Design the sequence.
């Protein structure tokens, strides 16, 4: 019978052996990714020829100055107004039902297309034509929608 194993000796590679192993792994990886690496080199070469890398280098070196300029510009009243308006606009869009906004978008597109068909005729609209136009169900529906919108907007403005 064999003698029982009482201790395990771990073989630790030397730093040189570890470095050689890492170099072999890196060589294998480079060989496997040769096509991708060639593309990356080609892209960086084109960026360098166009001066983009020089510009990026200058921007990185001047990062503190650029950050100061960005903060100064962002804190100006027109920029804060823009940011607040964007946030309010995003809030408006998130509070609306997507089906309603999609329907409204399609209706506006159809209305613009229809208006483009008749925009160049130069005819004046009389009061009688306006009154008779309200008998058209499509016009009546749009006018009613507009009136309901204005009523709701007025209620909102009353607060």
Sequence:
């Amino acid at each position: 019978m064999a003698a029982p194993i009482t201790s395990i000796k771990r073989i630790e590679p030397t730093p040189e052996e570890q470095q050689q192993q890492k170099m072999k792994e890196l060589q294998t990886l480079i060989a496997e990714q040769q096509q991708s690496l060639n593309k990356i080199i080609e892209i960086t070469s084109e960026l360098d020829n166009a001066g983009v890398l020089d510009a990026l280098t200058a921007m990185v070196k001047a990062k503190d100055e650029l950050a100061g300029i960005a903060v100064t510009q962002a804190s100006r009243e027109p920029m804060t107004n823009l940011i607040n308006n964007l946030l309010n606009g995003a809030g408006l869009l998130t509070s609306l039902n997507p089906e309603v906004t999609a329907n409204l978008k399609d209706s506006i597109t159809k209305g613009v297309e229809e208006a483009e068909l008749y925009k160049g005729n130069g005819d004046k609209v009389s009061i009688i034509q306006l009154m008779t136009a309200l008998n058209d169900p499509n016009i009546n529906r749009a006018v009613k929608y507009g009136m309901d919108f204005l009523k709701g907007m007025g209620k909102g403005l009353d607060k």
Observations:
- The longest helix spans residues 98-118.
- The chain has eight helices and no strands.
- The chain has a mean pLDDT of 90.
